[in-house]
Amino acid sequence: MRGFPDITFFLPNKLNMKSLQIPRLSALLSAMAALTLTATCRADNAPAILENAQPPSFAPALTTPTRSTPLSASQTSATPIVGVETGASSAGFTGWTKPVWLSDLSFGVKESYDDNLLRVSGKGLPIDSSWVTVASLKLGFDLSSLVAADPGTIQTFSLIYQPDRAVYSQDPGADFTAHRVNTILKGKSGDLKFSFDDAFLYNDGNKLAPTYALNQLSNADANQNDKYRNSLAHAPARERLNQEQDRYTAFLQFDTKYLFFRPISALNYINMDTLLFNTSLAPYKGYQDYVDRYDVNVGADVGFKVTPNWAFTLGYRDGFQYQQQYSLAINSDQHFSSNHYQRLLFGLEGKLDWLTVKLAAGPDFRDFNPDTPISNLHTTRFYGEAAVTANFSPTQSITANYKDYIFVSSTGLVPYEEYTYSLVYHFSVTKQLGLDLGAKLFEHNYTLGNDEAGSAPSLREDLDYEGLGSITFAITPHLIASVGYNFDDGQNDLSSLPAKYAPSYRDFREGVFSSGLQYRF
Fold first, then answer.
1. What is the pLDDT of residues 117-153, one digit of tens each?
2. What is the spatial distance between Cα 511 and Cα 521, in angstroms, rounded to a whole number?
3. Among 286, 324, 292, 232, which residue's Cα sits nearest to residue 455?
4. DSSP letter string, 90-127
5. Do residues 64 and 519 make contact, with C-beta atoms less than 8 angstroms apart?
6. How far is CA 336 from CA 274, 371, 458, in A?
7. Buried b (16+ CB within 10 A) or exposed e, 330-340
8. Are 443 and 460 in contact (CB under 8 A)?
């Protein structure tokens, strides 16, 4: 990333001194303001059912968007997760009002057009497009009355089930059914606050991954250069495949007048259930193998309150990242990047009437296993994330998110550093009409090392610039329409790549138009 110069600190890491680099922040705003469905909820954002936001007494959650496991706009459910306030408490045309224990009941349908399903450059594989129809059901249950507790202790206890059926008219092999289950428990008793937020996904999709090759030849006419494509092109196709994912964040917070203590734990689990093949041989040259991976950590934060609503924090995380190793029959390259990390975090969190802030950053001490293809197995890196929401008026807000962290790749072998920048503007024009505009930048940096033992060198630095926007309109308090468009521009940012590695194949463009209807009981 280009922008501010590097700043280097020197911190102890075990017995050695390792350099810690704070990444160069670059300008996020690209003037891509197009229209996309407000309901775009990405699987790796873990969470969220935003209607069940935590009460103001809690510190804001860090729900930074990331492209580790995203869903493209054409794949997401028809349910507008964020939108205008409709106040659907009265009975609709059915004359039926849902009981108190049924917090959500809605049906939706969305029609989208995705003009580049595999996010390829078009220089090898042809660019395929498709109309996509998504039918959705959402069931939400309020379970708070089932818990024996003092009145007011349980503020939220909900279970949400949302199945989505996606049908690709021009590519039936991409069809899938996503089953999402969210569990949210939040409460307070005296000086103790607690929260558990779990998002589970089972995706009933194809077990055969795409083959990124124009042909299977081995002579001068061979073209398997799409295997060099942008790493940010993987995610939409991968997320349509058969898999299970689970993400949770859980914490307890003990408050005093001047301090708080918050034990915390988080999990990001991804289990791919797709077929694996030896990609060095026809007919599987260019076939994409995917591995299982997870990230789990435990730790605690200490908060030093400067006012009742603002605190500086000092945190520690002890975590482990797992990356599945390919069997020898699948890949002769036996590198994999499982690692243990310890993270020290310095932060700020708080809330005003119009501003909500949570920031955390610090050194990330990594110990990679001996088979990791990087030059320094014991390295200190920078970790940072931020979530800021500014409500300029009752009808207008801006949300900014940022994240920088190291994770293990879904394609195996090499770890990478992922950067995410996001800025979204929301405007409730009227009680019926809502508008959202935004810009995002994603970067995958694989320059920690270079694995040349496999079919391709791992060295790469890939970008994805995204512009998005949406209009949501409540036709009635129960019937909501939405229309949107989002545009992604993928680019290679490593100019030193030789021509034999086809750097131009890492550029892509994708546009997704969508429109939907949802009926809420």
1. 999 999 999 999 999 999 999 999 999 888 877 777 8
2. 32
3. 286
4. S--TT-----TTEEEEEEEEEEEEES-TT---SSSSPP
5. no
6. 18, 6, 12
7. bbebebbbbbe
8. no
